[in-house]
Fold:
Amino acid sequence: MHNRYTSEQIQQIWSDENKYQLWFDIELAVCKAQAKLGTVPEKAVKDIAKGRWICVEQKNSVEKIDEIEQTTKHDVLAFLTHLSNNIGPNARYIHMGMTSQDLLDTCNAMQIRQSMRVIIDDLKAIISILKDKAIEHKKTVCVGRTHGIHAEPTTFGLKLLGHYSAFDRCLRLLHDATDDICRIKCSGAVGTYSVIDPKIEEYLSDQLDISSEDVSTQVVPRDRYALLMSYLGIMGGCIENLATEIRHLQRSEVGEVIEQFTKGQKGSSAMPHKKNPILTENLTGLARLIKSAVAPALDNIALWHERDISHSSVERVILPDTFSYVSFALQRLSKVIEHMVVDKDRMEHNLESTNGLIYSQQVLLHLINKQGLTREDAYEKVQKCAHKDRGTHEANGVFQLNLLQDKVLSMEEVKEIFNVDFYTKHVDYIYSKSL
Structure:
C-alpha cells in the first residue's frame, strides 16, 4: 500500500497482525468443531485458545512468523510452525484435515466483508453530502454541456442529483452482493471433504456468519472476487466522473465551481495566482488504479483444474490496495463536494454568454409547430442564424440579432421563447423519482 493514499481502516484490516489473528481464530474454531465431533480433546482446545496472546498478539509475532517463512517458503506452514513452537504438543490438532486454501479463503472472506463494510459507510457518507448539495442547488440554473459545448439550461442540483443516484446504485449493488462475494470453504485438498467432516464447515460458517461455498475445488471460485473488483471498478468510474465534472467547471474559462482553497495553500511553484483542481485531478488518477484491478481479477477466474497459485500474487496486491484506494478516494471526494465553492453569478454569466444559442431547439420547434415549416426548412433557418457572424469578433454572439434581422422571429416571439424557466419546469418531477 502506498502511504500517501491509504485508508487507515483498510490498512488495519489487511495488516499482517490482523491476518494472523484471523488465521488463529479460524484454526481455533475448526478445533472447537472437531472437539464437538469427538476428534479433538476438549482440553487440547482450551490449551490452544490460551496461546492466542503469545502466538499472534505479541508485538514481535509477525516478525517471528516471517523469519520462519524464510526457511519454509510457505506462509501457512510458517504460521503453523510458529503455533507449534509456542503451544506445544496440543498444536498437532491444529489444521487437522484442512488445506492451506481453507484457511486463506476463509480469512479472505472475513477481510473482504470487513472492507466492504468500510466502503459501504464511505458510500453512505458521500451519498448524504451529494443529497444535501443537490437539494441546496435544486434551482441553481446553469448551462448544460454536451461534447463540452453549451447545449441547454439545466440546474447544478440536477448535475449533483445524477451523481447522487450513481453512488446510491453502487451502494445497493455492493450491499446486495455481499453473500455472493463473501464465501468460506473448509472442504479439504480438492473440495471433497475426504478427510474433514462437512459439519466442520457448517460450524465454521455459523460461527463466522458467512455462507460456505456451494461447490469448491481447492479454492473458492474466483468469479466471486471478479464480481467484487468489477463493482469497485464501477465505483472508480463514478468517482472519476464526478471529479472530472468539478475539474472542467473549475477551468478559468468556466469558473463555475472550484475546490476549496485553504489558507496557506499553494497552487503552483512558479505562478502564485494559480488555484489548481489538485484534489479532483488526484482522484482521477486514483480511479485509474482502481479500474486497473478489474482485468487481473477477471483473469484469475481461469485456474488450472482444481487450483493453481497464479491468483495468489495478484490478490495479495489488488485486494488491499483497491479497497484502500476506493475508501481513500470516497472520503476525499466527500470533502471536495462538501467544501466546494459554487459561483452562481458565473453560472448565470456563462448561461447568457452566447446570446441565446442555448434556446435553438425551442426556436426550431416554434418554427415547426407555430409557423408550419418543415423540420428541414426550420433547421436550416435556425442553424444559419446560429452560425452566421455579422462582422463581430465574438463567434456565435449574435444569435438573437440574426433571428430578428432575418425575420425568422419577431421580438414578441423572442421574449416568449428565450425563457429559462421552460427548462426547469420538471425539476421537481426528476427529484421525486430519486429522493
Observations:
- The radius of gyration is 30 Å.
- The chain has three domains: 3-93, 100-258+273-347, 357-417.
